[in-house]
Design brief:
This protein has 318 residues and is an all-beta fold. It contains no helices and 21 strands. The strands form five sheets. A five-stranded antiparallel beta sheet has the order 1-6-5-4-3, with no helix packed on it. The protein has a four-stranded antiparallel beta sheet with strand order 2-21-20-19, with no helix packed on it. A hairpin with a 7-residue loop joins strand 17 and strand 18. The radius of gyration is 18 Å and the shape is globular.
């Protein structure tokens, strides 16, 4: 199914950072937590979580996948994986990531069980872990590769898989009382290979979720929503640090969370993230994937992006 973006996405010839763009990726779809990648076919692939319509909380059941040749025309490939295909989880299909490695496509995903009691956390039974699914095609369908999570303790979600130039796969994540750790995976990405490594963050470790790691001009970037809201970053000369805090590059939108990914496509660096927008028929703002052009300074700094004002979403495509 081809989905036109009504000219909303930028022409790459436009001035950098000139346009803010929503991605109306389908009628009635609420997409969040975008993981953007460019695979050997030259397309940009986008893996997202999928909010239920007018969602009040984060009970999510599947992950979606989209692709584009030009950032103007998108193909929806539907559901990449759903929690009803898992034997070890039945809820919380939260922020995914993806990888192309040794000729296979991987979906790295969090999922869980139990109930979160927001009024009385002592009664919560919610647990989450990180799984791995594999496919011969970037759009899937993906199949659970190991029939369980990579580990059960610590509680973990929001995986970010970074494969370095030498082929080493590093998995970053948000963990309960376990942030700012990284672990190496084995060569087929189906098991951890060694101990968790507590990274040196230079003495500054704010509350965070949703890390994303990339490399540019020999410099590693560890980015995350600081306090779960403001997009901030560190840099290092190694994927395990020590890291130097560099500040916030996209400020928060009120008290709503954010989740993002950063990718270079056709010589342009792009920031994918989600906005919380007033949505007709829903009593509260809902999440919608958006994109901004990303610029860097000569010293490797990320130039600050002014978050756009909240707006109503564009009409869904038919």
């Amino acid at each position: 199914m081809k989905l036109q973006l009504c000219g909303l996405l930028m022409s790459l010839a436009l001035p950098l950072g000139a346009v803010t763009n929503l991605l109306p990726l389908g009628a009635g779809l609420r997409t969040a937590d975008p993981s953007a990648h460019v695979w050997p076919d030259g397309q940009l692939w986008l893996y997202t979580s999928h909010d239920q319509e007018c969602q009040q909380d984060f009970h999510m059941k599947d992950w979606l996948v989209f692709s584009s040749h030009d950032l103007k025309n998108w193909t929806s490939h539907g559901v990449a994986l759903a929690v009803d295909q898992l034997s070890w989880a039945d809820d919380y299909a939260w922020a995914p990531d993806a990888a192309y490695h040794n000729g296979k496509y991987y979906l790295i995903f969090p999922a869980g069980t139990g109930v979160k009691n927001r009024q009385d956390p002592s009664k919560s039974t919610k647990w989450m872990g990180i799984g791995v699914a594999v496919s011969d095609k970037p759009q899937g369908p993906f199949k659970d590769a190991i029939g369980g999570p990579l580990w059960r303790t610590p509680y973990a979600n929001d995986p970010a898989l970074f494969i370095d130039d030498d082929g080493t796969p590093w998995l970053y994540f948000h963990g309960k009382d376990f942030d700012y750790y990284v672990v190496k995976l084995n060569d087929d990405l189906t098991a951890v290979a060694g101990d968790f490594i507590k990274m040196d963050m230079g003495g500054y470790e704010p509350k965070m979720e949703g890390p994303w790691v990339f490399k540019r001009n020999g410099l590693y970037y560890f980015t995350m929503p600081e306090q779960n809201r403001d997009l901030a970053y560190y840099t290092a000369t190694s994927p395990t640090g020590p890291w130097r805090y560099r500040g916030i590059f996209m400020p928060r939108d009120g008290e709503q969370n954010n989740h993002h990914s950063i990718v270079q496509y056709q010589r342009q660096w792009l920031l994918f993230y989600h906005q919380w927008l007033n949505t007709p028929g829903c009593p509260r703002p809902q999440r919608h994937v958006a994109v901004e052009a990303l610029q860097f300074g000569a010293d490797g700094s990320i130039k600050k992006i002014q978050r756009p004002s909240r707006q109503a979403p564009f009409p869904a495509q038919k």
